[in-house]
Specification:
- By secondary structure, this protein is mainly alpha-helical.
- The chain has 3 domains: 107 residues, no CATH class; 109 residues, DNA Cyclobutane Dipyrimidine Photolyase, subunit A, domain 3; 122 residues, Rossmann fold (3-Layer(aba) Sandwich), CATH 3.40.50.620.
- It is 54% helix and 6% strand.
- It has 19 helices and 5 strands.
- A 5-stranded parallel sheet has the order 3-2-1-4-5.
- Helix 4 runs antiparallel to helix 5.
- 41% of the residues are buried.
- It binds flavin-adenine dinucleotide.
């Protein structure tokens, strides 16, 4: 009931190596929701914050299993990159979602807000859904099927705004990901694939979670097949589309005094294009103000962010043999600028943030650094650039290109 999501790289590697032999059975086992969740990897937070790389997982999978045997597993591991690539080209979706999370509580009737609070607290009266809400709050983890059922229950049974349900997940899930979360909720709502919503069905819950939910039948008549009808969800219209932003995938000549900025979109600088950097200092922002006041994260989620960032800083310090700093300023941009001044840096180097909270602060950071005459160099992993370039339409065209690419890599 209390899965332990690995947060440090050491724990992530141990969990991953323990899961590797189970890859062949993943196809048939993954959809079942079991107490303890031993049939899935629990690697979401490790992969999302990159204490473990998709590239490592894919490469090791293909050393031990054939592509055919591992295809379903590889496909799931690549879903995150699909969502991330898609969001890179549609940043407006993230921006609109954050705006609605802020504005909806001011506009909704008091009784709707009361219901929102009750359903999130696990007091809807539908016992199996309430158990899922409580599991999320207690553990910071939900199985994929439970995420789908609960999101559908929220949208199509309770008829509550998807944006607030997605925010509940974002505040509690230890693997909360701006792309996977926002776009999965849009998919359940019927906004991501036009005309296709995900409708929760009691028969599906009974099939995939008979033991897990066996004592939670009260109120389940509200989920009876046929009783749940997909809601018409307010569509804010055109989500815009931009070209995939291009970043260098290798480090060029750096300035005399360079700082490495570590952030939660990629915490493995010692592997890949930044490995050869020779920074004078390393910094990561751990702003409690941002976590608590802006995103209102659960205390468990804040603790997990501290853990992954602390682990990233410690590894980076050991790899680059230079000082590292955890910046606690309320405003991360102010914190980073003070760090630049203190270490007399000429250049800040980082992985290019992906659409989400870190990306949102880039324009201000760029302007502040520019006004100080400091260069900001953002690097993207080549494997991300390639995968993102495939995410121009639906998942299956993406997978066609991605699987061909992976097969070529495994042969070379
Ligand atoms: C409404 C909803 C919200 C979601 N929110 C998030 C989120 O905030 N963060 C997040 O990482 N995933 C999210 N997912 C996707 C998926 O549920 C989780 O990635 C997965 O359940 C994580 O558990 P696991 O590591 O044990 O999965 P496993 O089944 O072991 O999968 C292995 C890895 O593959 C990737 N993966 C698997 N399924 C998906 C998927 N459908 N979409 C994207 N990546 C996938 C993840 O990196 C995962 O760690 C959401 C799904 C839904 C339906």
């Amino acid at each position: 009931m209390h899965p332990i999501a690995p947060l440090t790289r050491r724990e992530a590697l141990v969990s991953w190596r323990a899961f590797l032999p189970l890859v062949p059975s993943y196809t048939s086992a993954r959809n079942r929701v079991l107490a303890g969740h031993g049939n899935v990897s629990l690697l979401g937070a490790s992969i999302r914050f990159r204490t473990l790389l998709e590239d490592e997982v894919i490469a090791e999978t293909l050393v031990h299993h054939s592509f055919q045997v591992a295809e379903k597993w590889l496909q799931e591991v690549c879903w995150r990159r699909y969502w991330k690539g898609w969001l890179e080209m549609h940043p407006q979706v993230w921006i609109q979602w954050r705006q609605r999370v802020r504005s909806l509580p001011q506009r909704l009737p008091a009784e709707t807000l009361t219901r929102v609070e009750a359903v999130m607290a696990g007091e809807s009266g539908v016992a199996c859904m309430d158990m899922i809400a409580r599991e999320l709050i207690e553990t910071g983890y939900l199985h994929n099927h439970a995420r789908m059922w609960w999101a559908s229950f929220w949208i199509h049974v309770e008829k509550l705004p998807w944006e607030l349900g997605a925010d509940f997940f974002f505040r509690h899930l230890l693997d909360a990901d701006p792309a996977s979360n926002t776009l999965s909720w849009r998919w359940v709502a019927g906004l991501q694939t036009r005309g296709k919503s995900y409708v929760v069905r009691l028969s599906n819950i009974e099939k995939y979670a008979p033991d897990y939910l066996s004592n939670y039948a009260a109120g389940s008549e509200r989920l009876t097949d046929g009783a749940v009808v997909a809601s018409v969800v307010e569509d804010l219209g055109d989500v815009g589309k931009r070209l995939l932003p291009q970043y260098p995938t290798a480090l060029g000549r750096t300035c005399n005094r360079t700082g490495l900025w570590l952030h939660p979109d990629d915490l493995l600088p010692e592997i890949g294009p930044l490995a050869a950097l020779a920074p004078n200092s390393i910094a990561a922002c751990l702003s409690d103000h941002v976590y608590s006041e802006i995103y209102k994260l659960s205390s468990q989620r804040k603790a997990s962010l501290h853990a992954v960032l602390g682990d990233g800083l410690a590894r980076a310090m050991a790899h680059y043999a230079c000082p590292s700093v955890a910046l606690a300023a309320d405003d991360p941009v102010v914190g980073l600028c003070s760090w630049v001044r203190e270490y007399e840096l000429d250049e800040v180097v980082a992985f290019a943030p992906m659409v989400g909270p870190i990306h949102d602060m880039l324009p201000r950071l760029r302007a502040s650094l520019e006004s100080m005459g400091i260069r900001l160099t953002l690097i993207r992993r080549a494997s991300d650039a390639t995968a993102f370039s495939f995410a121009t339409a639906g998942f299956f065209p993406f997978w066609e290109k991605m699987s061909r690419h992976l097969k070529q890599l495994s042969l070379s």
